[in-house]
Amino acid sequence: MSAPSDPRGLGPACRAGARSSESARTGGEWVVAALRAEGVRHVFGIPGVHNLAVYDALLRQTEITHVLARHEQGAAFMADGYARASGLPGVVIVTTGPGATNTLTPLAESYAGSTPIVLVMSDIALPLVGRDLGALHEVPNQIDCFRPVCRLAEAISDTAAIAPTLAGAFDLLRTGRPGPVALSIPWDLLGARTEGPAPSGGHGVRPPCHVQDVAEAARLLAAARRPLVIAGGGVIAAGAEAEARALAARLDAPVIASVAGRGAIDERDPRFHGVLPDRRVCAPAIAAADVVLVVGCHLGHRSAEKLGPAFGPRQTVIHLDLDPGVIGRLVKTHLGLVGDARDGLVRLLAALGPARSASEWDPAWLAELRRDVNERYTPEVAALIATLRAALPEDAIVVNDQTGLTYWMEWKFPVLAPRTFLYPAGSAVLGYAVGAAIGAKIARPEQPVLAIAGDGGFMYSVNELATAVKYRLPIVYLVVNDGRYGAIKWLQELFYEGRWGEADLTNPDFVALARAFGARGERLASVDALPAALAAGFAADRPTVLELPRAVEPPWEF
Predict the structure, then answer these.
(1) At a CB cut-off of 8 Å and minimum separation 6, what does 367 contact?
(2) Domain containing 325 — which CATH number?
(3) Assigned domain for 350 exists
């Protein structure tokens, strides 16, 4: 491929004219200035011929650190992990066409998980956009690829609009339901200079809940005999964990967490009941509740299809969410509260006052429900999860891929604090953990980070191990190796009379592979070796790959 004759998008006369105005910035400089104004301190990406103006601006400043990925998919997974671990938007910078479209799979997960991501991608030159003339890296109408997986996807057609559009993107993420935002900027605009006011960032606040709705919700909860709270990721996004715990205590109500809401309540707390997709534990409790308060959880199909019958016609469901579009969508709602989760919970606590709860829950019955598991939760699997929990510091961040062990951990691994259990539940994507763990470690360098993947999922993104080595990140990667796509084999046998195929894998020597990258590598002889290996990995000066030969059947019931 041949590069454009002038990668900055300007002819000599234009460049000479632009130098006469010292206050003018290139489009690339406006991108960096706008990100800096929003408080962005890390971006993830890969330079390409069309976005070099952005990289030139990044190289000439010190406030924003760039993390160089080995694939755009990895960069976007890093941004997702960064956002989930920190609560701040993850920012991705990629080039035109294939560089941009490589981020679509991670953005689909970020969209499903309501994770705030800002993608800045270059595009072909503005006069060529939409004409399908075969320009370098062209994807006709590139921005249209991103609309289904973004809260906002905009193509910019004026250099002067770059900074205001970025400010609007961050404002949207602060005021509405989080998710990806994608901005496509033609490369000639990134090189062009224009004047404008200095960017100002940090605008936008979450809306409060309506006082009359709060008063009605408080009245219903005060009269409840078996109140139950479902805490979703919106509780954590709003920083409302303390308020959720206080409300559960005031109501003497069991708390069920969505996968995204894990850590909203310390799962050693006796009021924690279970994780929403765990039908055995959660469905009977929901069915027995007379008033259910859902906070910051969209009750998606993955959970609702299993729990739908648990919500009865004589039951009162109160749904508090920032996004009015999710209220009542899959579960009939008696009362909807639209607004910030923290604001709503603070107001509910004030309206309820200190009066004694009228709760009539039977703690022994709830405890019996919590012990209900199917026969595939073997003592060996339980011991492995218990060993992991005991070996990890309370603030350790666990980043999950999709594999038999993590399917169980989604339900059974005790989560003790918010933003310490990262799980791609929304799209159930393979290959998430390697990159997301890098983003999490960069966001929270003081906290240990463990990534868990199967042999199949690890190989989806193993190239990003080079990124972890480059930045000397002491992440521990635990690869649970069963030599196959184990869950697929299990499903084939279940659905097709024991027949299975095309699930066996030919794997590398994972220890040798890790060392070839410059990482540490160790094959574990048993689960008993995990605690010492984890401690050594967290204390190392580079990433560690631990291989654990083990097959784990998934928990699913059909």
Answers:
(1) none
(2) 3.40.50.1220
(3) yes
CB atoms within 10 A of CB 70: 17
Contact between 116 and 173 under an 8 Å Cβ cutoff? The reply is: yes
Exposed, middle or buried: residue 398 (CB in 10 Å: 0-12, 13-18, 19+)? buried
Q: Is 557 in contact with 522 (CB distance < 8 Å)?
A: no
Residue 419: CATH number of its domain: 3.40.50.970
Decide the pairing of beta strands 227-231 and 90-94. unpaired
Please count the structural domains in the chain. Answer: 3
Unique residue bearing structure tokens 């919590």: 370
**Given 370, 392, 416, which residue is the final one in a domain?**
370
- What's the mean per-residue pLDDT of the chain? 93
**Residue tagged 């890390």 (tokens):** 42
**What phi, psi does 307 have (nearest 5°)?**
-105, -10
What's the domain range around 256?
A: 211-370
In the prediction, which pLDDT does 311 show?
87
159 and 245, same domain (yes or no): no
C-beta separation of 475 from 447 below 8 A = no
Rounded to an integer, what distance in angstroms lies between the CA atom of residue 552 and that of residue 78? 27
Return the SS3 of 138: coil
Same structural domain, 155 and 66: yes
* CA nearest neighbour of 444 among 180, 66, 81, 117: 81
Confirm whether 502 is domain-assigned: yes
Domain closes at, from 194, 225, 244: 194
Instruction: At 172, give phi and psi (nearest 5°).
Output: -60, -40
pLDDT digits (tens, 9 = 90+) for 504-558: 999 999 999 999 999 999 999 999 999 999 999 999 999 999 999 999 999 998 8
160 and 48 in one domain? yes
Rounded to 10 deg, the angle between the 379-391 and 404-412 helix axes is: 70
**Is the C-alpha dihedral spanning 459, 521, 479, 264 positive or negative?**
negative
Same domain, yes or no: 78 and 158: yes
pLDDT in tens, 107-142: 999 999 999 999 999 999 999 999 999 988 999 999
Tens-digit pLDDT profile for residues 161-181: 999 999 999 999 999 999 999
Sheet of 255-257: strands edge to edge?
272-275, 255-257, 227-231, 291-295, 316-321, 335-338
Q: Which of 200, 252, 202, 195 is nearest to 227 (CA)?
A: 252
Side-chain half-sphere of 89: how many Cα atoms within 13 Å? 28
What is the full DSSP assignment across 214-268? HHHHHHHHHT-SSEEEEE-HHHHHTT-HHHHHHHHHHHT--EEE-STTTTSS-TT
Token couple for 206: 């979450």
Q: Which amino acid is present at 281?
A: V
Same domain? 418 vs 311:
no
Mark whether 348 and 420 lie in a shared domain. no
* pLDDT tier, 10 (very low <50, low <70, confident <90, very high otherwise): very low
DSSP label of 129: T
